[in-house]
What does this fold into?
Amino acid sequence: MLRSKILSTGMYVPPNLFKNNDIAAMMDTSDEWIRQRTGIEQRYWVDENTSTSDLGVEAANRALKNAGIDKSEIDMIIVATLSPDHEFPGTACFVQKKLGLPGIAALDIRQQCTGFIYSLSIADQFIRSGTYKKILIVGAEVHSKGMDKTTRGRDVAVLFGDGAGAVVLGATVVKDAKTDSHILSTHIHADGTFADELWTQAPGTGNGKDRINEQDLLELRQYPKMNGKTVFVHAVKRMPETLLNALQVNSLTPEDIDLFVFHQANLRINDMIAKQFNIPEEKVFNTIQKYANTTAATIPIGLDEAVRAGKLKKGMLVASAAFGSGFTWGSAIYRW
Ligand code: ACO
It folds into this structure.
């Protein structure tokens, strides 16, 4: 049976490290508050000359190198980001230009923290259908240029880091589903009822006469706004729900999964899910402590870190789940 599998991973974070105490020097917050509420200890933020596509290209080049393939073999590039280089065209076009791959399909996914799962799902369909053989998926974010880094914006600004992760997804013929690497399933969901519980309002055509005006800037509508409690409540409901569905569809139990690589919005969210499913600590691979929430980059960063740490090995069964703005959520189960 024709399926897709992850051939390789790659990641990149910019060199500028900001510990919680560095953030506390910018706004009224503390290392203790951030650690206790979120688990975050540090994050990396870009300098003024670095864009989302710059981070994405670094991660993509590492994934290409690790796949041991020539970039000319790539049929399509998918870039998931909520922090694009420019309003348009999509960041995938900038990544494509910098990689030197003119002519192939380039697609942006705007599903925030669930962006990587959506991208994986879409790429999987293109490969299963036989349309493409190799697809480069990049999750990349530069949050630091889009947040209010003063006390006013502290509820959001402490949570996010910049970074990029990438995978090369390739076609594979699965002979034995119990041993061969492949994507078993992906599930993607959204509920736009909650679109404005976590959003950046401006610029946008939903803002009256102008996409952005002086009043928008005065009222700081260019910065993300989050109803943290509502997001938390929905995350701890939807992530277990989609995970359970994915397990049931594949006739699996949580015990069958060797490693869980969840989205990293808050360590407390992932701890609650682990507790609910009785997942032992060593089976959950968390990176939020080091990188904070890197949104669409989070899961591919986690996969790459897990591979390099020797925690993710060939033949292992892996489960991912994510939840974020939209609201959007989803899950994937794959044999490494
Ligand atoms: N430092 C210090 N104090 C702060 C900070 C800060 N950075 N931010 C807020 N506070 C204060 C608040 O003002 C409030 O003070 P008050 O009690 O005097 O009013 C107090 O701390 C408590 O704030 P809460 O919002 O109640 O804190 P809570 O325990 O809910 O934690 C958090 C906040 C960490 C944001 C949590 O709600 C959360 O993790 N939510 C989910 C985030 C998430 O999943 N995001 C989704 C992905 S992002 C995406 O898709 C783009």
